[in-house]
Design brief:
GO terms for molecular function: hydrolase activity, acting on carbon-nitrogen (but not peptide) bonds; metal ion binding. With about 200 residues, the protein is of the alpha/beta class. The chain is about 45% helix and about 15% strand. A four-stranded parallel sheet has the order 3-2-1-6. A three-stranded parallel sheet has the order 4-5-7, covered by helices on one side.
Length: about 200
């Protein structure tokens, strides 16, 4: 299974990284370009820890409302920001708000990005308790799931210890998106992925 975190890095990201490391887990972080430039040490730590780093645009827009040229600016801009911090271009895109269409996936493909959606959304962006986030993940989890979380809220790191402990006790392994999809041929630019192999 793959935990993913959108919108960072923020002041809450180090807590998440500490918890992942303590539980010998890795995740995928979809970073906003300017946020990566503001907190480059956090992004470098993500890379050092073995986490995957993906593209979450420059201004967090609804990409479906933009022209192809504007979409490209958003994707390339954030990708270039990531390159300037860690020296490697991302190959994964999480569209803000999960908003994508044929135009978005086509431009993503042209810029070398696979579109990564999710199969489990505990809606940590709503004003809910850490306990509610825990329950939604633990009770709904299936093999191959991609879990959508955010590292911009204080409540999300508070939910992680029980999620990591409970699911590990049930035999789940926490992997990055590339690791999750490797056994099914990996990711290809322009294709959309909602989950990994269901086994």
């Amino acid at each position: 299974m793959a935990l993913t975190f959108d919108d960072g890095p923020t002041q809450y990201t180090p807590s998440i990284l500490h918890l992942l490391e303590a539980h010998h887990a890795v995740a995928t972080f979809f970073v906003i370009g300017p946020h990566a430039l503001q907190r480059p040490a956090i992004v470098r730590r993500e890379q050092h820890d073995g986490d995957a780093i993906g593209d979450h645009t420059v201004t967090h827009p609804h990409l479906t409302a933009l022209s192809s040229a504007r979409i490209r600016l958003e994707l390339d801009g954030a990708a270039n920001d990531v390159v300037s911090v860690v020296g490697r271009r991302p190959t994964l895109l999480r569209p803000p708000f999960g908003a994508y269409n044929t135009r978005v996936s086509r431009v993503a493909g042209q810029t070398g990005l696979a579109v990564i959606m999710w199969s489990l959304d505990p809606q940590d962006w709503k004003k809910i308790t850490p306990q509610a986030i825990e329950r939604r993940v633990i009770n709904r989890m299936r093999p191959g799931d991609i879990v959508s979380l955010h590292d911009r809220y204080a409540r999300t790191p508070k939910a992680l210890p029980l999620i990591l402990t409970d699911l590990a006790n049930r035999g789940y392994t926490f992997v990055t998106i590339p690791q999750l999809l490797a056994s099914s041929g990996g990711t290809r630019p322009g294709l959309v992925y909602h989950h990994g192999p269901r086994r």
